[in-house]
Amino acid sequence: MLVVTKFGGSSLSCATQFAKVKKIVEADAKRKIVVVSALGKRDTSDTKITDLLYILHAHLKYGVPYEDIWEMISSRFLKIKSELNLSYDIKSDLNSLEKELNKSIPEDYLVSRGEYLTAKLMSDYLGYTFVDAKDLISFHYDGKIDYALTEKKVRLAFSEYGIMVVPGFYGAYPNGSVKLLSRGGSDVTGSILAKCLNVSLYENWTDVPGILAADPRIIENPKAIKEITYEELRELSYMGANVLHEETVFPVQSLNIPINLKNTNDPEHPGTLIKNVCDDKVDLVTGLAGKKSFVSFNISKNHMSNEVGFLRKALTIFEKYQVSVEHIPSGIDTFSVVVPYSEIEKSQYEIITELKNTLEAEVSLDDDIALLAIVGRNMAGKKGLCGLIFQTLGEEKVNVKLLAQGPSELNIIIGVSQKDYEIALKSLYQKLLA
Ligand code: ADP
Ligand code: ASP
Ligand code: MG
């Protein structure tokens, strides 16, 4: 039995956190593959090493003095090495990196050094072999993971070393140059390694007692979810519950490898188990999530419903501007296309003009939309839930701008004005989950 064990930046912020990690790893001999993020925040006012590295890169690029930031970065690594009394000569790795700092240092490479150096410290501390992610996680040139090659390399490394620490968040193109995953991507690294070795469990250790039923930055003390399906987690994380990267489930889901989200600061707590099927039928709603900054292109034209191909023509325009569409709520002679604001920031006026000209329709833009997802595997076929949701929002005087429910009835998506987002979330949490 094998376990991939991933620790996030919050579990790796200082020597005390490193000590907790060591205790956890040593408590179970199955924890043979350890994945680490870069050193995270020590407290709320602190800055993650990854963010400092991005800032460092910007300073280098624009030729602004960068010495202070470099000092902040290197001193954090040196402090951990000295506090833990490690033998790894991090000073010389830091010196060589310092020599590479110049205008043209690739951003992905520089930022990946956060995970690289953290993993080197951790491998020394645990007595596990350091295996560089650039020698394992392989990308095709189009940016997709080359699973066949990655699996071959991971299996080979594991059979050679048996116990290893791997830095998360990056891999390499076929020519060896480093490529980052998207932010929070160490979760995905852990999932890829779990898949490649077909382990029995993927543990993801962080700073909360599990997946919480709502964002703890908005809801005070939300309850931790005991069990959740891959699909539910995917819905929640896609809709903003960024405790796990939204791509985390895919690699392990195909092999039905459960993920156990656990709290490094409270290792005895069972955390959340994420798996294919959950039998528990107790809770109607599993959790809530949401995101601000959506816009809706509202399109209307008389007799639109009789015009075959109307929707396709509209969507072709969004495709042309490379905008991925989130929802398309529709009326008889109207429909709206809901997309994240970030996707149309630069092209909104062109899109509106083209929609008007091509469709000969009226087009307006509502740029004040927050989306809220109510997710639950037990919601399907349950009568009265929508009534309860609308009643709750109505009592709080929250106007519902749009509504969408997929055929699986796994989630209900509600669009509200951004100013109503927090109150909508709080009132729904009280009614459905508290
Ligand atoms: P790590 O450093 O371990 O990768 P992250 O910061 O990426 O940790 O994710 C953990 C954080 O996610 C929590 O501290 C919490 O503030 C935030 N979060 C947002 N939504 C949720 C949720 N639904 N459940 C748990 N945590 C959440
Ligand atoms: N350190 C990276 C980030 O801050 C990756 C991760 O934490 O998973 O995004
Ligand atoms: Mg994370």
Blueprint (SSEs and pairs):
Blueprint (H helix, E strand, L loop, with lengths): L2 E5 L7 H12 L4 E6 L12 H13 L5 H18 L5 H11 L6 H20 L2 E2 L16 H15 L2 E4 L2 E3 L5 E3 L5 H11 L4 E6 L20 E3 H9 L10 H5 L5 E5 L8 E4 L11 E14 L9 H11 L13 E7 H4 L3 H12 L2 E14 L9 H11 L6 E4 L5 E6 L4 H12 L2
Parallel strand pairs: 1-2, 1-7, 2-4, 3-4, 7-9, 8-10
Antiparallel strand pairs: 5-6, 9-10, 11-12, 11-13, 13-15, 14-15
Helix pairs in contact: 2-3, 2-5, 3-4, 3-5, 6-7, 10-12, 13-14
Can you tell me about this structure?
- With 434 residues, this protein is α/β, with parallel strands linked by helices.
- It folds into 2 domains: 205 residues, Carbamate kinase (3-Layer(aba) Sandwich); 146 residues, VC0802-like.
- An 8-stranded mixed β-sheet has the order 3-4-2-1-7-9-10-8, with helices on both faces.
- Helix 10 runs antiparallel to helix 12.
- The longest helix has 20 residues.
- The chain is globular and about 75 Å long.
- Bound molecules: adenosine-5'-diphosphate (ADP), aspartic acid and magnesium ion.
- The site of magnesium ion has 3 residues, from loops.
